[in-house]
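User: Second chain of the day. Same drill as before.
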Amino acid sequence: MDYKGALEDYNKAIELDPDNIKAYDKRGNAKSNLLDYKGGIEDYTKVIELDPDNIPAYYKRGNAKSNLLDYNWSAAIKDFTKIIELDPDNIPAYYRRASQRHNAEDYKGSIEDYTKIIELDPDNIIAYSKRANSKKYRDTKNNISRDYKGAVEDYTKVIELDPDNIKAYNERAWAKSRLKDYKGSMEDFTKVINLKPDEDSYSERGNAKRNLEDYKGAIEDYTKALKLNPNKTSYYLQAIAQAKGKSEDYKGSIEDYTKLMELEPDEVYFLFSRGYVKQLSGDLNGACADWEKAAKSEDTYIVQLSKKHLVMHKCQTEAYDGFIDDY
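Assistant: Same format as last time:
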């Protein structure tokens, strides 16, 4: 559409009739479509001056204020609040106000609006999902903690209404993990994998299995995730190496850390970690050799950690005497 040409027509109409509500409204629409939100706000404000109960004008002005991206969420909230005063059952207004309240970090207010939508429309999947999302945030303004339990309940309702809703299973699994319900989290990620397997679902299920001390299962999932995204070889290989170490597959863990050192020779953490696994396997000399090398790196944290282990395990290295002086 030729919005610029339309502007000229609406300007002319307003010149002929300064109280032409329709012309102001249409011109506001054209300006908003041209991303001139301030101009749009001015025109919608004029419509409201001429017709104070014009709900569409408040809605459009509220949206234009939101699109300004000046973080003045309260200005848009006022317009949506006015709509609700005029029409207490206006679901779109509750949606928009809830969104702006969430942006303003007023999660309590956002949750209240989504709750109202659910009262008006008990099977509204979007409202349950968005309310769950707001519940996951800590509301410092109202001194309210994160409500992961409430989020799980809302995602469960979404799943009841839509049993194949992948996003709801993903989000519920994430919330369950924050509640340390790793078994429930694993089950949800398994459902996601059954519906549509992807790297993230295998990775997250691997994390849940790791937390359940099912290291073999975790390794299997990390391996599948790695096959789906070879660009994250270091990330998954490290997770696999750690899981192997936890499951006492020290030989496999050492091999993986060695591979990581080849892939990222400047990442001294892998050298330190290999030394740690060598020590667990009973190869103290090999562990001391790795820690001594790591202690000569430029990574301050790893240097201190390596020195600590050299002293703690009484490693007889050429640098031992110098390191022991630090402790």
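The radius of gyration is 30 Å.

User: Great, on to the next one.
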